[in-house]
Every structure is written in structure tokens, then in C-alpha cells.
Design goal:
2 domains, 44% helix, Beta-carbonic Anhydrase, Chain A, zinc, 6 strands
Length: 212
């Protein structure tokens, strides 16, 4: 695992690559970022969107939170980090795609799946947050009551992506641009054990493996 010294060495390599003899990329972005794709991804250290998609700086506007969740649009409360990022990406950057990137072995979804009143009472932040995906948990329990625990959790991970896609449409700025045909929404799932990327196909209602 990378130490702080190794991280600093990594920055020096980054600095040499992008601010050395060939500094055109960052020079072209000195007045703003050109990203046209917003990706909502998990905090999990194994799921770095830029690495998974082999992107350059400036390609992706990324929001990372526990379990890659999008809350429904709401005005209550004081702090709405994910919602603020969505608003900025849509209204200021005018992104053309929003991707919800879920993944296998998600600790946040596991916490949701295994939660009960006692566990929820002990959690000040995690369980209230992952409860956004509670409809996914209910759906899986009703649809797959006899499936193995692993199969149920995987289904919950994928279903939570769909819940977040649904919640995106509760934001008027997103809904309007989708209806105008200038913004597309996507659900992706990174299967870590298999090394596969699955994309949700709304026509089949299934997550389908991207062809190698």
C-alpha cells in the first residue's frame, strides 16, 4: 500500500508528465474544466473512475461518496454535497452524460443489507446515508427471497444503481435536460472479482457485460 512518501513521488511523476516539456493539456484547461461526463462513484479505493476508464485529467467530473448514491432532491437540512455537485455539473459544465458507477463488494451496500435498528442506532452517518438505497433492499428481499446471501447483496448493489438513476430525475435541472435529449443517464457496475464492467440496458432491464 502506498505510503505518503510514495504518494509524493507519484505527484512528482505527475508533475513531470503534465507540467514538464509537454504541458499543453493543463495549459488548455487554465480557464476551466472541459468535462462533459459526470460520474458518481464509490469512495472505495479499488474503484477509481479515472483509472478504470483510462481517462486524462479534465475528462471526468467525479463525485465520490459511500456506495455511489444519489439522494432525492430535497431542500431540508444544510449540507448537500452530492446534490451541489450534480447542480454544478449540469448547470455550469452542461455535462452530456451522468454515470452511476457501482461495484461488487461494496461496504456501504453491505452495511445497508445487514442493518437493523440496533446497528442503525450506533451509526451517526453511515446508516442514515445508505438508507437512501433502502428501496433496493426491499426490492431484492421481495424478488429474490430464496437466493444466496451473496447473490442478494450483488442484486442490491445493482438495484441501488437504479434507485440513484431514479433519484437523478427528481432534480428539475436534470429532468429537463434529459427530456430535451441533451443529457443521458447511465448505470454501470464494476465486477471486481471478474474484472468486468456491466452496463444497464433499459430495454432488457439487465446489467450486461461490456464485450471484451
Amino acid at each position: 500500500m502506498a505510503s505518503t512518501e510514495e504518494l509524493l513521488d507519484g505527484f512528482k511523476r505527475f508533475q513531470t508528465q503534465y507540467f514538464g516539456d509537454d504541458s499543453q493539456l493543463y495549459a488548455s484547461m487554465k480557464d476551466g474544466q472541459p468535462a462533459k461526463t459526470l460520474m458518481v462513484a464509490c469512495c472505495d479505493s479499488r474503484v477509481d473512475p479515472a483509472i478504470l476508464t483510462d481517462c486524462n485529467p479534465g475528462d471526468l467530473f467525479i463525485v465520490r461518496n459511500v456506495a455511489n448514491l444519489v439522494p432525492p432532491c430535497e431542500q431540508g437540512g444544510d449540507y448537500h454535497g452530492t446534490s451541489a455537485a450534480l447542480e454544478f455539473a449540469v448547470n455550469n459544465l452542461e455535462v452530456e452524460n451522468i454515470i452511476i458507477m457501482g461495484h461488487a463488494g461494496c461496504g456501504g451496500i453491505k452495511a445497508l443489507w445487514e442493518s437493523d435498528d440496533k446497528a442503525s442506532a450506533k451509526s451517526k452517518f453511515i446508516h442514515p446515508w445508505v438508507s437512501i438505497a433502502n428501496p433496493a433492499k426491499i426490492w431484492v428481499r421481495n424478488a429474490l427471497p430464496k437466493a444466496s446471501s451473496d447473490a442478494q447483496i450483488k442484486a442490491c448493489e445493482q438495484r441501488a444503481i437504479l434507485e440513484s438513476l431514479t433519484n437523478l430525475m427528481t432534480f428539475s435541472c436534470i429532468r429537463e435536460r434529459v427530456e430535451q435529449g441533451v443529457l443521458s443517464l447511465h448505470g454501470w457496475y464494476f465486477d471486481i472479482p471478474e474484472g468486468d464492467l456491466l452496463c444497464f440496458n433499459p430495454q432488457t432491464g439487465e446489467f450486461e457485460v461490456v464485450t471484451h
